[in-house]
Write a structure and sequence with these properties.
Strand order of the largest sheet: 8-7-16-18-17-19
Distance between the termini: 58 Å
Structural class: alpha/beta
Number of domains: 4
Radius of gyration: 30 Å
Number of helices: 24
Helix content: 40-55%
Largest sheet: 6 strands, mixed
Strand content: 5-15%
Number of strands: 19
Amino acid sequence: MNDPSDPMRLLPYLNREQYGERPLLYGPYFDAQPVSSEVEERYGRVGDHYEIVDEKVTYVYNNADKMFFPRMGDPSQNRPAIYRQWINKPQGKPTFFDNLEFLFSYQIGWMYWRYFMWNFAGRQNGEQGFYSWDKKSGHWASGIKWLDELRLYDMDHMPETMMKHRAWNKYFLLPFLFGLLGLFYHARRRPEDFLALMTLFIITGIGIIIYSNQPPNEPRERDYVLVGSFFTYAIWIGMGVLAVFELLREQLRLSPNMAAGLASAVVLSAPVVMGFQNFDDHSRRHITAPRDYAANFLESCEPNAIIFTYGDNDTYPLWYAQEVEGIRTDVRVVNLSLIAVDWYINQLRRKVNDSPPIKLSIPADAYRGRKRNSVVYYNPSGVDREMSLQAVLEFIGEDHPLVGAGGRKVESYLPTKKIYLPVDVARARQLGMIGPNDTTNVVDRIPIKINRNYLIKDDLAILDLIASNIWERPIYFAVTCRPEKMFGMQDFTQLEGLALRIVPVKSQSDRSLGIYGSGRVAVDRTYDIIMNKWRWGNFDKMPLYVDHAFGPSIQSMRVVMLRTARVLNQRGEKDRAVAMCEKYFEAFPHFNFPYDYNAMYFIRVMVDAGAYDKAKPHIDILANEMADWLEFYFSLDPSLLEPQASFGQDFALALRTKDDILNVVKAAGDEEYAQQLEELFAPYSLDRLVQ
């Protein structure tokens, strides 16, 4: 996203500068350190004239730190460590041959050949997959047992969950082989045409891979950029019909009509197999999860609220729900991934649908372009004085020029790190932020924690938005946000559905649950939201394909339901705690969500609440599921079960789940059932691995 409002801003947009640059023929390796930087000033329109509003910084490296044809040059997002994993070089400067190894193993092998085989051989499962040595996910698989076992694992003992996975698509190499047949036929019959098509195939495949110079662990699959190459290969599959036709007519001396019909039938087997294999995981019929899960976030908010979200998958569905479905158009969704740029901050000042403009105290000009991209902490006295958040923002919004590192001038600075948000207690009660039972834990100020010696523009905008709107509109953080963007306010929030509302009430957070455990739970409101307002994407009603992209939202709902059930149980509201657990199993049924250790958390709550009989059917499903998986794990090479290996963590968790099941059943005094479970799990002792 961007807002190229004038020609000067249009050019960087067209050049895709926001995505950075990856040297193609000559550049630094990932561990190289810049020796200087070059700054190119950028003009932008301000009113009726142009002035310098931004800059492009290009880092300069020593020639000794550069190499020809650099394949490993991205120093961000912990990628240097991942580069070293792919070339198996824990230390030392990468060489040209290391570059080539990365090119062939990752860029061509993992990011092209794997995607190619997904389309023409078959796919192991629906997971993206990040490492070729991780046998668990992301590989191609043909359905030809001996061939797949050479590359993956023993498939004789695969659990039912894996065998019936809708994204385990088996083409038995048919599209690949027919394409290969058509390729050779084309090369033999029309070599000039073949060279033209082969050129297109290479340019739109390997050529794009080399040009894009992809770093490891992309946030999402990148097979879409290679679709031209796959389309080209599909042309050769079509030519496979001619190859088979010619073979039948010349070798078996069939009539032209019979040969044509038989050739068509033979090659048609490939798309028919693909159609049957792919339909169940490609059909989106009945799946309403993107809309429903987005609505669940929105319905978690009070009227006229502001909610911070993080990332594309947590934001765009909410915008769709509002703009297309008209759901909760009074809620303003603020994307933390975009709030670091001036044009998005300025958009917040506008009315959107039924949401009034957001107030900000720092003027638009102070956010423009490069201004206040970074605001450094500066206090020559060495002793911080306490300042209210509004006073700090007012100071930063004014011009207090300071010469920073490298002689660069900055517009203003952060004068203190002892910052607090003063509380209007009366207004907070009017807004429902303080409940009738809140007495000793109500505070008159909320501390703001700054753990660095600087603030960046998105920090300023977040704090500005909170300070300027907190006593007029409910402000929430989605539970999928990054905790550091809450500036230490976790203990001053309350969980309402999938959102954490800032409140002037201090509560002890449950650190074991991460951001989900922040502050307290608004129990009655959250219970009502979950039981009466949330929708489940039809996954609760019929067997459907659950794409892995739904994982973060599903995990969020799962943890919110678990925390609510636990709090209800602690408060002595046993019936509602059990009802919440039953709602979880109803919303995430076994036929779409195979039971794993997450089910154990809810089973424990039910048993602790005195509902062992209601929990027992779920215990039985979980026990059989774990036995099925353990049978598979014990069939694998022990090296795949090491702690850091492909199935190491899953194996350890399955063993833990087995033990927990037995402990829960024995503690409930169900000796007969405990004996049955011990017999079920008897073959899965660690001693068996040693033998």
